[in-house]
Structure formats: C-alpha cells, structure tokens
Specification:
By secondary structure, the chain is an alpha/beta fold. It has 16 helices and 11 strands. Strands 2-5-8-1-9 form a 5-stranded parallel beta sheet. Strands 3-4 form a two-stranded antiparallel ribbon. A two-stranded antiparallel sheet has the order 6-7.
Length: 320
C-alpha cells in the first residue's frame, strides 16, 4: 500500500531538487549492481540486504541478531568487498579487554617513548562478531567510535578511517555466556536486523554451490571510499515533504504512549534511514513507503518491542 505518495509527487521540483534528482539517478546502475552481487551471495534475503545497504549509505551501524551459522559473517564480508572498503573482524570473547579493540600504548625501548599500537577498530568496516559475549565494559569501548568516529587513549584522540561502519552480531540471550547490550549502546545502532533461516530452495542451492567465501573472492568492487562518502552526503539532501515529516512525528508520538518511547535521536535515525531507502529506490524525495520499509528495523530495539509488535504499532498510525 502506498500512502501519501501522490501528495509528494505533485509538488514541483526546484532547480536544486532537479539537480539532486540527476545525481541520484547517476548512481542507479551501481546501486543495482551492488544489490545484484550481494543477493547472489546471501540468497532469498533481498529485504535484509537492502536494509543493510540503506544503513551503510545512511552512515549508520547495524546489529544482526541471529543464531550462529545463518550468514551474518558472510554478509559482512560480502558487503565490505563490494563496497571496496577495508575490513577487519573481531571475535568477541568473555576475556577480551577494551585495549584489544581500540589499541594500547606500548613502550618502545629503542626510542625510549610510548607508541600507540592501533587495534582492529582502525578500519572502515568492522565486524564485531558475537559482541554480547564480552563484558559490558569492553562493549562500551565501541561507543565513542560508533558515535564520533574516533577513539581516545590516555587522553589522546585518534581519528578512525572514513567511512567507518560497524556491523555487529549478537547471539540470543538464552544462549550461555552472553551479556545483554546496554540501552546506550543499542541506541548507537541505526538498525537491528535478523537474517533467519533460508528458504528450502535457497538452502538447497547453498548445498549445491561452492563455498560462499570462494564466491566472495570473485565479486567485483562496485564503489570506492570516496563514492561511499559522497553518497552519504547526498543522502542527507534527500527531500522530505511536510506530510512525511508529520507522519514521522505521529509515529514517534504513538511510541511514546508506552514507557519506552522513541527518543529524539531515534526519530532522527528514522528520518536518515528513510532518506537512504529513498536513494536506493532512485528517488530524490522520501515517501511514507520509505518510512514504513525501515520503521521496524530502526525502532524496535529502541523501544523494547519485537519486530511484529513494532509493525502493529506502525499500522495504528495513518498518513494525514
């Protein structure tokens, strides 16, 4: 169902908006190529891969919550390869320290001074695998990096490479050796996604094909870091009509009828994700459809509801 789209389309575009529309269309072929390649690796999960791409283009971080072995690490590796970005993986364990993530100052006996040894966080795409297996203290080491794109060690700030994107995975809390992520860290993730089990036909194809990592090695780079940064800037310019802004506010108001409503930062995240989704759909403006497409992934982990409950909440709000 398309709500409010006609109201958006009927508004005449200014010269600036026409130029924006031209720039959006100029990336259309690469966006399609990106989606085609990633969907050849992660089978029958087009919605999840589109949302993950939206997250990257919006400059946000994504949290995958699934059982082990359902393709979270494979998806992360494929995304970094196609995006043409540097990739690092951290396997979190219960004895991991914050310095194992961000780095540590070490004494250089030859130079008689301390030198900063950079940790694996100094990359462009960081896979934080099974992040909820480490202690909350170590989890918090990611907070500054995810929010500000920098880390501080012994009072000295170090900028991280740009773009910087965290793809974190966590196992369900009923599994042994897991810690729940603090609310402050959950809020740093633009989206929470779940791949789930593949369909029967997709799983049969997985059994017949080569290893996914062998296939990833054959993928072509679609973007480079300059293009990703340019697109992230372009996404912030995607036009949002007043009717769509009112819809966003109505949704936020509906969530706030419960004790854990959507915060202002969460509302800004919803707006940004909708703009990125519109960009992927080759539009220079946001429609309510874009908001609905990203709503559950952006909002559910912020208000403590399941995806199904969040969708039910969304359906209670009409577009004026």
């Amino acid at each position: 169902m398309i709500w409010g789209t006609n109201k958006v389309q009927k508004q005449e575009l200014t010269p600036a908006q026409q130029e924006l529309n031209f720039q959006v269309e100029s990336y259309a072929a690469k966006i399609q190529a990106f989606q085609a390649q990633i969907n050849n690796i992660i089978l029958d999960k087009q919605q999840q891969t589109k949302l993950a791409l939206s997250c990257l283009l919006a400059g946000g971080h994504v949290l995958f919550e699934d059982l082990p072995g359902l393709g979270k690490t494979t998806l992360s590796s494929a995304l970094s390869h196609i995006a043409g970005l540097k990739f690092q993986r951290i396997q979190f364990t219960n004895d991991m320290l914050a310095s194992d993530v961000i780095g540590v100052n070490m004494f250089n006996q030859k130079e008689h001074q301390f030198e900063f040894k950079r940790g694996p966080i100094f990359t462009q795409i960081l896979l934080a695998d099974e992040i909820n297996r480490c202690s909350p203290k170590t989890q918090s080491a990611l907070l500054e990096a995810m929010e500000e794109g920098q880390v501080t060690v012994d009072g000295v700030r170090y900028d991280l490479p740009q773009p910087f994107w965290v793809i974190a995975t966590q196992n369900p809390l009923f599994q042994s050796g897991t810690y729940s992520l603090p609310e402050s860290q959950l809020d740093r993730f633009l989206m929470r996604l779940s791949l789930g089990y593949p369909s029967r036909s997709a799983e049969k194809l997985l059994l017949q094909q080569d290893s996914r990592y062998a296939l990833i090695a054959t993928l072509q780079h679609v973007f480079n870091e300059q293009e990703i940064l340019a697109i992230q800037q372009l996404v912030t310019q995607i036009y949002i009509a007043d009717v769509v802004l009112e819809y966003l506010l109505d949704l936020a108001t509906e969530t706030r009828k419960s004790p854990h409503g959507l915060s202002t930062r969460g509302l800004l995240a919803l707006k940004k994700a909708a703009q990125a989704h519109a960009f992927i759909e080759q539009r220079s403006y946001v429609t309510p459809d874009d908001v609905q497409a990203v709503f559950a992934a952006v909002v559910s982990h912020r208000i403590g509801l399941s995806e199904a409950e969040t969708l039910q909440l969304m359906q209670q709000v009409n577009v004026s």
